[in-house]
Design a protein that fits this description.
Number of strands: 17
Structural class: alpha+beta
CATH topology of the largest domain: D-amino Acid Aminotransferase, Chain A, domain 2
CATH superfamily of the largest domain: D-amino Acid Aminotransferase, subunit A, domain 2
Shape: globular
Bound molecules: 4'-deoxy-4'-aminopyridoxal-5'-phosphate
Strand content: 25-35%
CATH class of the largest domain: Alpha Beta
Number of helices: 8
Helix content: 25-40%
CATH architecture of the largest domain: Alpha-Beta Barrel
């Protein structure tokens, strides 16, 4: 039986519950992270904790733990569940309030940490590549709900995923309201053209921690990465396309909106980065 951290206590999963008056439940008022542990070490733990606190800061949510305490609680949750290879989900909500949306009515944030076993998200698709679909729903505008806040309000991403599902895709490609590539429903997007790697700036998407790791790996392997505005044309005509995320890791995309990308198989640079990412994940991180 897995143990869930709730406000400093470890509760068996079957009894782990939050109030129906919790504003995380009522309004998606809260923030979260998705983190992986590989071989007993937590990948980029400090970066994830910092992003959680940055998301909280942006919505004026005061997390009742220090960053160090949060990192410890995350490692503790893994330890208590005897997990070495796992996915961890810290969640901080505005807490218990009334049925009105006013956060001033919420006295104390709720802190939850869930840790589970979860293998690579796309299974056999890492071999053949994902089919992606550009969706009609636009990414939340940065001046409405900044995509850099990893908030509990994921309905925009879910609408994109629904549309990709309906249209037979494995992942959505979301554009911003100007038609620029934003990101996938839960990952960042890269395109390779003439041996150079391109990816959008992070104003209209989440600044991914896997994205950052891929920048470092590319640089180490002598591959140039350029942050720039991209459109669907750039993806359709790319030599290779891949997505990055904690859950997805590095995953090739071989078809977009019916267009075969490059050779139609995961390309050499994507494969090189997939291997390099695995090696990095297995050989770094904070011990549990
Ligand atoms: N974009 C979105 C919308 C996401 O939910 C995620 C997953 N956290 C990412 C990008 C990738 O970020 P990371 O590499 O930090 O997991």
């Amino acid at each position: 039986m897995s143990l869930i951290y709730i406000d400093g206590e470890y509760v068996p999963a079957e009894n782990a519950a939050v109030s129906v008056f919790d504003h995380g439940f009522l309004y998606g008022d809260g923030v979260f992270e998705g983190i992986r542990a590989y071989g007993g070490r937590v990948f980029r733990l400090e970066d994830h904790v910092r992003r959680l606190f940055d998301s909280a800061q942006a919505i004026m949510l005061c997390i009742p733990l220090s960053q160090e305490e949060m990192a410890l609680a995350i490692r503790d949750t893994l330890r208590k569940n005897n997990l070495r290879d796992a996915y961890v989900r810290p969640i901080v909500t505005r807490g218990y309030g009334d049925l009105g949306l006013d956060p001033l009515k919420c006295r104390k944030p709720t802190v939850i940490i869930v840790a589970v076993e979860w293998g690579a998200m796309y299974g056999s698709l890492y071999e053949v590549g994902l089919t992606a679909i550009s969706v009609s729903v636009r990414r939340n505008a940065p001046d409405a709900l900044p995509p850099n806040i990893k908030s509990l309000n994921y309905l925009n991403n879910i609408l994109a995923k629904i549309e990709a599902n309906v249209k037979g895709g494995n992942e959505a490609i979301i554009l911003d309201s100007q038609g620029r590539i934003s990101e996938g429903s839960g990952d960042n997007i890269f395109v390779i053209k003439n041996k150079k790697v391109y990816t959008p700036h992070t104003l209209n998407n989440l600044k991914g921690i896997t994205r950052e790791a891929v920048f470092e790996l590319a640089e180490k392997n002598g591959i140039e990465v350029i942050e720039t505005d991209l459109g669907l044309f750039d993806l359709y005509t790319g030599d290779e396309v891949f997505v990055t995320g904690t859950a997805a890791e590095v995953a090739p995309v071989t078809k977009i909106d019916g267009r075969i990308i490059g050779s139609g198989k995961p390309g050499p640079i994507t494969k090189e980065l997939m291997v390099a990412f695995r090696e990095l994940a297995m050989s770094s991180g904070t011990p549990i």
